[in-house]
């Protein structure tokens, strides 16, 4: 079982339930933060002191308040923490249920478990902790099992994600070439962008660009 656990959660009622679950599992050392910046600092401190955490549990969304922070979301924190401590076991505990987002966290950020907050989520969180503590097998809330089988986003790469993202924030198709050049994204020719956009519309069976963005948002891409 894990000995040192860090929890990043900004909602008190949820944090109490998570902390109680960890206490019931007789975990020796439990720390809690409400900001992603503090999570990263705690991870660094643990590594520098020779007492690293062996499990990190994090939400994805954190409500902004009076405090100015550098890391505004759990997925960004997870990416930085994963680079800092590659072997750390990570469990996401979130209300987010968009397939692309979940798949990206599992495949790109290599989180070890994804538990969806809901009616039976504390039992699922406990099951995830137990499984992750003794196995490298990914734990996924049962009703999200279809995410790993979903082929709709399998052919989508980072270029496609950025293309959809730019369209979703109001960049027009005619402006994309210059925008991609500004961002240092290649290829960035007008013809390449047009071909890729056409491919995305066909892939998602979108009638037009607005329809494509709507579908992408439903999947958690945009």
What does this structure look like?
- It is a single chain.
- By secondary structure, this protein is an alpha/beta fold.
- It has 9 helices and 6 strands, in the order E-H-E-H-E-H-E-H-E-H-E-H-H-H-H.
- Helix content is 47%, strand content 12%.
- The chain has a 6-stranded parallel beta sheet, with helices on both faces.
Briefly characterize the structure.
47% of the residues lie in helices and 12% in strands.
Topology:
Layout: E1 4-8, H1 12-24, E2 29-33, H2 36-48, E3 55-58, H3 74-84, E4 89-94, H4 99-107, E5 113-116, H5 121-134, E6 139-140, H6 158-168, H7 176-183, H8 190-204, H9 209-219
Parallel strand pairs: 1-2, 1-3, 3-4, 4-5, 5-6
Helix pairs in contact: 2-3, 6-9
Quick tags:
222 residues; alpha/beta; six-stranded parallel beta sheet; 47% helix; 12% strand; elongated
- Average pLDDT across residues? 92
* Beta strand %: 5-15%
Order of helices and strands: EHEHEHEHEHEHHHH
Largest sheet: 6 strands, parallel
Shape: elongated
Estimated radius of gyration? 19 Å
**Helix fraction by DSSP (H/I, runs of at least 4):** 40-55%
Placed side by side, the strands forming the largest sheet appear as 2-1-3-4-5-6
Distance between the termini: 37 Å
Q: Helix tally?
A: 9
Q: Which structural class matches the secondary elements?
A: alpha/beta
Please tally the β strands and state the result: 6
Identify low-pLDDT runs: none
């Amino acid at each position: 079982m894990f000995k040192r656990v860090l929890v990043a959660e900004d909602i008190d009622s949820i944090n109490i339930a998570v902390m109680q679950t960890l206490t019931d599992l007789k975990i020796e050392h439990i720390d809690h933060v409400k900001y992603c910046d503090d999570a990263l600092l705690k991870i660094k401190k643990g590594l520098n002191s020779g007492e690293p955490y062996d499990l990190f549990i994090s939400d994805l969304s954190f409500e902004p308040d009076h405090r100015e922070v550098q890391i505004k979301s759990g997925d960004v924190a997870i990416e930085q923490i994963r680079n800092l401590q590659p072997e750390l076991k990570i469990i996401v505990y979130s209300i987010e249920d968009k397939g692309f987002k979940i798949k990206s966290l599992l495949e790109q950020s290599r989180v070890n478990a994804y538990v969806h907050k809901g009616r039976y989520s504390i039992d699922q969180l406990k099951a995830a902790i137990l499984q992750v503590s003794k196995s490298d097998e990914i734990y996924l809330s049962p009703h999200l099992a279809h995410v790993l089988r979903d082929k709709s986003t399998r052919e989508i790469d980072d270029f496609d994600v950025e293309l959809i993202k730019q369209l979703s924030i109001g960049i027009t198709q005619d402006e994309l070439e210059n925008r991609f050049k500004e961002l240092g994204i290649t290829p960035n020719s007008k013809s390449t962008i047009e071909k890729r956009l056409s491919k995305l519309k066909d892939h998602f069976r979108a009638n037009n660009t607005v329809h494509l963005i709507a579908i992408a948002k439903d999947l958690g891409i945009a």
